[in-house]
Amino acid sequence: MIPVCRIEDLPIGESVRIEIDEVTPAIAVFHTDEGLYAVDDLCSHQDASLSEGWVEGCFVECPLHAALFDLRTGAPSCLPARRPVRTHEVSVLEGMVHVRPAVREEAVA
To answer: Which of left, alpha, beta for 12 (phi over 0: left; psi -120 to 50: alpha)?
Structure first.
């Protein structure tokens, strides 16, 4: 698990972007009315940071072309995005938000 921030430093409706290393894609962590969620920060449609998008309920709207992603599943709910973004496990331990990055699927040759 990777520590992100203290829960009180991530108000409801806000997000934070974390970078782990040079090979792991950045992750956006969102605090919604329904809970905490984490997805890959990069929109699956085009290069845009989802952590800079708008959160409503359990959805984030991409700031570039308004594609909506369900933070619970990573699935897009409208065009222009067609592919989901990867989701990650989030937990709070002793007031600290942690993320467990999902295992990357290796490309099949």
So the answer is: beta
